[in-house]
Amino acid sequence: MWLRDELLKSIWHAFTALDVDQRGKVSKSQLKVLSHSLCTVMNIPHDPVALEEHFKDDNKGPVSNQGYMPYLNRFILDKVQEEFDVLEFNKMCWTLCYKKNICAQHLLISDDDAFKVWCIFNFLSEDIYPLVIVTEEIEYFLRKLMEAMGSGWSEEKFADYKLQLNTKKNCLTAWELIELVGRRYFSKGMNQQTLSMGITEVFQELILDVLKQGYMMKKGHKRKNWTERWFVLRPNALSYYVCEDLLEKKGDIIVDRTCCVESLPDKEGKKCLFIIKCTDKSFEISASDKKKKQEWLQAIQTCIQLLRLGLSSPHREARLRRRELRQKQQAEEDDLAERMKQLQVANENKQRQLEGMKKKIEEAAAKAGMEEHRRKQIQLDLQDRYRLDLEREKLVRQQMEEQVAQKSCELEQYLQRVRELEEMHHRLEEALEDERQAKQDEEAMRKLQARLLEEEAAKRAELEQIHLQQQRALSQTEAEKQELVAKQLAKERDLQAAMLQLESLERERHGALEQYEVRKLERAANKTKTWKDKVAKHEGLVRLIQPGDKGPQRITNWGPASFTDAELELRKKSWQESKNQGAQAQ
Q: Which of 98, 150, 212, 512 has its CA 20 to 30 A from that of 490?
């Protein structure tokens, strides 16, 4: 059974195509047609009243995608009980949406190839609406396509395209992917047939789960003869056909977790033999060469291993792993952004601490200035005092010498204090040097911020240009919308005229039928009257009068006469045959 998410992607395309006004809503009449088509291709009994009953409390007009989704899940998807033709389902959704979104004249691929690219897009796109395919999945698909066409992969060319894509939105819609493949941007020099074969091979591998296919010889179970068949390996079965057009299927080899595949020695003139052992049967197969044999053995063994591990097809598993890897990378990027924010907060805290230290250094410098001023004042006072003392000590030298000795000691202490003050001055100069370095770092940071602001202004100008382009595109779309509305009104007027003409023809037909019935009854009455006259003439008038029976008289359709019971039954039978012949003649 197909996953519901993959079915919803195709239905989303069909729903979006019905949204002509691009308002995100579709009329109930269109949803009825869409629901009936979905039920038909998915083999589900359709209930025409269910939609009206589901939306009976909502009479506001068109229905949005969110409003239609509960009805879709309850009355359609929940009722899917058996396998159905998924290709027919996808083609129905494709038919509703592709003419509105692509122009086949500008593409170098057929509509069938465009449909296959559309299916591949639904398989590889993200489970987020509106549907888009990211750059990694685009590269994965293009690599597969180039490998299928036998062409080399150009990293430089894709890097240039990826750079162009990153400047826009870093993803593509289904119609942009079809245009990318249809314009042959990566397949220049390839003819249309090679490109079509490459798209078909990738479609079979990703969508139809064809893991491997090719011609091999198979030994029969009854006649034991060897017949060449076209084998197609899928995750749970190895099917074989008459030829590679897949029109006449000869059988299936069911692959489950109990199966095993083994190599066989050459025998009966056959080489490169191997056997597939199932629960009830074993199948002997001969490959064309040893390389093909090894490839088939490895592919079948891989299918068995996946079934034993309870995994789905390898391409779906690979898609899930790629998505998980992208989610992990996104989480790491988010974590890195959070760490950058934390570092920025820490940097701001450091800046505040530096500002606090700067204030403290300024306060210390102010205190040092006050101390130096006080020291100088003290020195001036001491000089004045020394001068007075010298004048005084000229009179008393001895006392002065004692005082000089005492002052010498004080001078030594003072010099020690001066040296301490000089060391403090050096430390203050170093602190000021650190402050100047911090200012230089702050200036560099300010220049970096200015450059970032200039880049942001340039990006804003570019975004404004893109906005203007979008405005012009919207105006052009509005003009096209008005033209489509005018065409629709003209078609509605033509339809009303046709309906009136049809009603007139219907009334004329009823009148002609009534006249025909009247004429038919008149002809029947005339023929019956003529026939009765003839019978009366031949049976009543011309007939010779004979003695009648002694029994009671019988009243017949030809007048009163005497008949026996046997004669009466014969005449009834002949009359009935004449009546039937007359009716057939009419």
A: 98
